[in-house]
Amino acid sequence: YVYFGNQLGQFYGLNRLDLHTAELRVKYQANAFRSIYQQEGINGKAKWVELESKFYDPRIRPWYQAVGRETRDLWTSVYIDFKSRELVATRARQVKSNDPLKSGVVATDVSLKTLNDFVRTLRVSEHGFAFILERNGNLIASSISDNVQRLSNGDYGRLNARESDENIVKQVYLAIEQDLKSHKHGIPGKIWVKQPGGDKYLVGYAEVRDQAGLDWLSVVAIPNRDILGGLNTLFWRSLIIGILALLFSVAIGYGILSWVSRDVRLLSKAAKLIGQGEWEEPIKVKRNDEIGVLAAQMEYMRQQLQTDKLTGLPNRTALEKRISKRIKNRPKDEFLLLLLDVDLFKIINEHYGHHIGDQILESLSSRLSEFLSPNDYAARFYEDGFALILDLVSNVDASYVTQKVAQVMSQNMVVNNSLGEQIHFTLTCGSAHYPTHAGTTRSLIKFADQCLYLEKAARK
Asked: How many CB atoms lie within 10 A of CB 161?
């Protein structure tokens, strides 16, 4: 079960019920009730099931509040699941963003039902038992008692070992608590507990901790009558099995959350870069779920932000970043920047209409794509102008290349309008050679633009 709640009280959760079925829990308004949907298969259509009758606000849930201002993973205290009434441990992490829609907590649940079922079937000895609990005494799993209780108001609550119906469980926990306070034994510890009017139990206990705040005790108790020749082997084998079961549950929760959080972090980083104008690198999140859909939408947005809608060529911002990146990564390599301008384009638009002007620009962009070599780069620089980056062109050859490009791009370019007239046009070029004419992006563009202006003035 993986889910996210934000600062606005909105919620989205996906709960895998089995190999083929999942349940979606969604609320878009803070004061609304959650809608429940069911989905068959990862590509199946979500079908509405019901509207929850009990109000749910993610911001007041233990998993949300436990994170606080922490930036690392945290385990929440074990609590009773809102819907299943089973004990759950949640691994949670804060998601930071200036946008309250994206700022909140992402979490994954590790159901402790399987752990409780495992402990219930664990055969410690003929009359022995085992249980796992938090430091405050709240039971997580037990082989001889319940771990939750029905309250007088009809709700369910945690069952503390001090309140267990099994008197021996209560006695064992109180003895361990006293032993820890007195520091008579280290951890793992081993003590004897005498049941009034009954058996004497050998009790072993160990702690399970991690950096995310997990702090549990695993306890095994064996009555004296069951202790025979293989005491030590049986004792430590049972204790190790209990600890391994805990570690296995912890590993599953951490693995799922890390997988989800990694891609959420990538999307958060990509959104930040796009907001800052740094959108050159593609978003590398490949998934077939909702996060994958969001990544695909952000990748489409990234491409749209650096593409001219009319011609499909990169826009001016993309061109400037391309030049800056090239100068930074290959400062010793020569290249030529060309600015191409359609002569009298304003008059063409006014006389024949903007749709004819658009046809000319589209035709030019097609010609550019066919004309350039794989290492060259073309962009729409402004309304009636294009820019080219030509690779490995020396300053000596710059004038020849500029004239050649203008001739080739203007040659036989004819557009027919609705009156059957033929519209011929020409191009003017301005060039700047790196590093001869300039050494920065801004100065290189300025030099080429000045050359274009002077050439236009000379040809007018």
From this structure: 26
Spatial separation of the C-alpha atoms in residues 248 and 338, rounded to whole Å:
63
Can you give the pTM of this predicted structure?
0.44
Give the span between the Cα atoms of 443 and 460, in whole angstroms.
Answer: 26
C-alpha 443/C-alpha 436 separation (Å) is 11
Are 110 and 86 within 8 A, CB to CB? no
Q: 156 and 80 in contact (C-beta within 8 Å)?
A: yes
What digits encode the pLDDT tens for the residues 128-179?
Answer: 899 999 988 999 889 888 888 888 887 888 889 898 888 889 999 999 888 8
The three-class DSSP label of residue 304 is helix
| Residue 49: closest CA among 16, 73, 25, 85 | 25
Q: Using CA atoms, how far apart are residues 58 and 30, in angstroms rounded to an integer?
A: 9
> Contact at 8 Å (CB) between 450 and 429?
no
Long-range residue pairs from 402-405, CB within 8 A, at least 24 positions apart, any chain: 402/336, 402/338, 402/429, 402/430, 402/431, 403/429, 405/338, 405/340, 405/371, 405/429
* Dihedral of alpha carbons 324, 329, 332, 334, sign: negative
DSSP string, 143-202: SSS-SEEE-TTS-EEE-BGGG-SSHHHHHHHHHHHHHHHHT-S-SSEEEEEEPTTS-EEE
- What DSSP character marks residue 309? T
Cite the beta strand spans of 238-360 per DSSP E: 335-342
Which residue type sits at 198? G
Query: Is a pLDDT exceeding 80 seen at residue 411?
Result: no
DSSP tag of 41:
S
Q: Up-side HSE of residue 388: CA atoms within 13 Å toward CB?
A: 29
